[in-house]
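A further point concerns the way the authors explain their paired sequence and structure data. Showing the layout once, in full, would remove most of the difficulty. For illustration, here is how one protein appears when written out as sequence plus structure tokens:
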Amino acid sequence: LSARMEEFNALIGLKGLKHIEEIVARRSRLVNMYQEGICQIPGILFQQINAEDTSSYKDLGIIIQSDEFGLDRDQLVYSLDSEGIAAKKYFYPPLHQQGLYRKYQQYPLPATEYVSSNILCLPLYSHMEEKIVEDICHAIWRIYRHREEIVCKLR
């Protein structure tokens, strides 16, 4: 595997650095919209970023606590996909459970396994329209309100 960046991609990256502050600010605004839009739903947890820190929000991962939300992460992914929303189960399976690394695991990693099994990355990109975030938040609320019907349907 050659992981070297091609010159053209490097050029695009260098040009983009001129706009990094506005890109990070834009992504932060979108994340705030997500937080305000769905933070009242039981069983959805957002990563906490210290006030003195800045996140680029390359990804927006939320944890789904199935006992409170009423659906597990995979059921929510299925439901979002049915609504045309592509949420991703990144970080699954965790590295220590992948074939090449499994033999090196020396200690149990229950927190890693919990996060890996329950994290869901919502759509987020720099030029995303605010309307899309609103629509995704409305879809998650709709799924939450119909969670019992969805569970019955998926059995």
About this structure: The chain is about 50% helix and 10% strand.
